[in-house]
C-alpha cells in the first residue's frame, strides 16, 4: 500500500515527536503524519517524572525550559487540559568545592536570565529539611520556579490540538527504510507500506541511533537505562518538599504520589536497550539514600520505574538537518530532558523544516559538531 502526498513524516510518537507535529500544524502546514511502531507515549515518555528545571549550566537550556513552562500554563485555556502543575522547586547540592563553584557560576547566569534562584548554606538547608543529613554538604542552590506536571497532560495536549489541525497518527507502524531520489528524501518504507513525503524527522528517542543505522547514517544517540525506586513509610519526610539532587553523591530524593522516590544518577557502563538492574544496583541506591536520609531505614519499597535516557556524547541534543539528504532531520538525544524541552524542540524543528530562522541559537545542536568536535561543557543530567 502507498500513502502519498505528505509534507512531513515524524517518526516517533513520544513527547518530542508529538510536539514537532503540533508546531508544524500550528503554522498551517497540512499533510503531517506521525509514525509510531508501538503506541503513543509508550517509550521514554511513559517513564518521565514530569520535571521542569531551570537550573542548567547552558543558557539555551534555561530558555527552553522557560518556553515549556509558558506553554504548560496555557493548557487549560488552549486545550482544556489540566496539567496539574506542582511548584515544588529543585534543590541542587554540592559536596565538593568544584561543584559549589560551578553552581555559583550558574546562579550568576540565571540571574541574567531573570530566573529566581539562590544559594543556601548547609545550616539553612538543615533548618528547611531536618530529615536530611547535610554534614558533608557545602551548600546548594534552590529555584522555587522549578516544577513538576502530569506527563500525560502535555502529551494529550499536543495530540488533541494536532488532530484538530488535521495531523494523522499511524500506530503500530514500524519504519524499515528511507526512500530517496537524487539526494532528496522521498519518503519511508514501513511494515504497512510506503509513505511518500518531502520531509522526514527522526524523533524516536533512544532508538534514533538505531534508525539512523537503517538509513545508513550515523546519529550518535544511544540508550542508557535509568531506574527510580519509590518507597513508603518515611512519615517524617513532608509531602511538599522540592526534588533534592545531591550532585556529588549522584542521588535524588523527591515525592512521587503517596511515596518517596529515590534515584541514583548512575547507569550500566554499556549502552543497552535492556532495562534490567541487578539487586546490587537497588542495594547501592538504598545504601546511599540512608547516608543522607536515615528516616528511610524502615521504609518499604512500593514499586520501581525503569526507562531509557536518550544520550549523546556531549549531553546536548541533536536538533538538525541530516546530510547527505535534503529533507531529512533529527530531533533526539535530550538526555532525560525531553519532557521539559519538548515545546521548544518542536518549535525549533518546525522552524528548520519550514526554512525559518530558528528563534534560538542552535549551532551546538547541529549534527556536524560530531564531525568537527570542539570543547563543549557537559551540562547537569538528572
Number of helices: 9
CATH topology of the largest domain, anyone? FAD/NAD(P)-binding domain
Q: Tell me the overall shape.
A: globular
Helix content: 25-40%
Computed structural class: alpha/beta
Biggest sheet character: 8 strands, mixed
- CATH H-tier superfamily of the largest domain: FAD/NAD(P)-binding domain
What string, H for helix and E for strand, traces the elements in order?
Answer: EHEEHHEHEHEEHEEEEHEEEEHEEEH
Question: What do you see in this structure?
Answer:
- With 382 residues, this protein is an alpha/beta fold.
- The protein has two domains: 177 residues, FAD/NAD(P)-binding domain (3-Layer(bba) Sandwich), CATH 3.50.50; 144 residues, D-Amino Acid Oxidase, Chain A, domain 2 (2-Layer Sandwich).
- Helix content is 28%, strand content 28%.
- The protein contains nine helices and 18 strands.
- Strands 1, 2, 8, 9, 10, 11, 17 and 18 form an eight-stranded mixed sheet that branches.
- Helix 1 packs parallel to helix 6, helix 1 crosses helix 9 and helix 2 packs across helix 9.
- The chain is globular and about 65 Å long.
In short:
This protein is α/β, with parallel strands linked by helices and 382 residues long. It is built from 9 helices and 18 strands.
What are the SSEs and their pairings?
Blueprint: E1 2-11, H1 15-26, E2 32-35, E3 51-52, H2 59-73, H3 75-78, E4 90-94, H4 97-112, E5 118-120, H5 122-128, E6 139-143, E7 147-148, H6 151-164, E8 168-170, E9 175-181, E10 184-190, E11 193-202, H7 208-214, E12 222-232, E13 243-246, E14 251-256, E15 259-264, H8 279-292, E16 300-311, E17 318-321, E18 328-332, H9 338-354
Parallel strand pairs: 1-2, 1-11, 2-8, 4-13, 11-18
Antiparallel strand pairs: 3-7, 4-6, 5-6, 9-10, 10-11, 12-15, 12-16, 13-14, 14-15, 17-18
Amino acid at each position: 500500500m502507498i500513502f502519498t502526498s505528505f509534507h512531513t513524516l515524524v517518526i516517533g510518537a513520544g513527547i518530542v515527536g508529538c510536539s514537532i507535529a503540533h508546531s508544524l500544524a500550528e503554522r498551517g502546514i497540512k499533510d503531517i503524519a506521525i509514525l509510531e511502531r508501538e503506541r503513543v507515549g509508550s517509550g521514554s515518555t511513559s517513564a518521565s517524572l514530569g520535571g521542569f528545571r531551570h537550573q542548567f549550566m547552558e543558557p539555551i537550556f534555561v530558555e527552553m525550559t522557560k518556553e515549556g513552562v509558558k506553554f504548560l500554563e496555557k493548557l487549560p485555556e488552549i486545550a482544556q487540559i489540566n496539567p496539574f502543575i506542582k511548584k515544588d522547586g529543585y534543590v541542587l547540592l554540592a559536596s565538593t568545592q568544584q561543584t559549589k563553584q560551578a553552581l555559583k557560576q550558574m546562579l550568576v547566569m540565571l540571574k541574567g536570565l531573570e530566573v529566581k534562584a539562590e544559594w543556601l548554606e548547609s545550616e539553612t538547608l538543615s533548618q528547611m529539611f531536618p530529615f536530611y543529613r547535610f554534614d558533608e554538604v557545602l551548600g546548594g542552590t534552590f529555584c522555587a520556579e522549578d516544577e513538576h506536571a502530569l506527563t500525560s497532560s502535555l502529551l494529550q495536549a499536543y495530540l488533541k490540538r494536532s488532530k484538530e489541525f488535521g495531523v494523522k497518527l499511524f500506530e503500530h507502524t514500524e519504519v524499515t527504510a528511507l526512500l530517496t531520489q537524487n539526494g532528496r528524501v522521498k519518503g519511508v518504507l514501513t511494515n504497512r507500506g510506503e509513505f511518500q513525503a518531502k520531509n522526514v524527522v527522526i524523533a524516536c528517542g533512544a532508538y534514533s541511533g538505531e534508525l539512523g543505522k537503517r538509513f545508513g547514517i550515523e546519529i550518535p544517540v544511544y540508550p542508557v537505562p535509568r531506574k527510580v525506586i519509590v518507597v513508603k513509610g518515611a512519615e517524617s519526610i513532608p509531602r511538599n518538599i522540592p526534588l533534592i539532587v545531591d550532585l556529588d553523591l549522584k542521588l535524588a530524593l523527591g515525592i512521587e504520589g503517596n511515596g518517596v522516590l529515590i534515584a541514583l544518577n548512575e547507569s550500566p557502563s554499556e549502552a543497552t536497550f535492556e532495562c534490567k538492574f541487578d539487586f546490587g544496583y537497588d542495594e547501592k541506591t538504598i545504601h546511599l539514600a540512608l547516608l543522607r536520609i536515615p528516616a528511610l531505614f524502615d521504609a518499604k519499597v512500593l514499586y520501581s520505574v525503569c526507562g531509557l535516557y536518550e544520550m549523546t556524547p556531549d549531553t546536548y541534543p541533536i536538533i538538525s538537518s541530516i546530510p547527505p539528504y535534503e529533507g531529512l532531520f533529527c530531533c533526539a538525544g535530550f538526555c532525560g530532558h525531553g519532557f521539559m524541552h519538548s515545546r521548544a524542540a518542536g518549535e525549533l524543528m518546525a522552524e528548520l523544516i519550514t526554512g525559518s530562522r530558528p528563534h534560538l541559537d542552535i549551532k551546538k545542536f547541529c549534527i556536524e559538531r560530531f564531525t568537527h568536535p570542539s570543547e563543549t561543557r557537559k551540562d547537569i543530567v538528572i
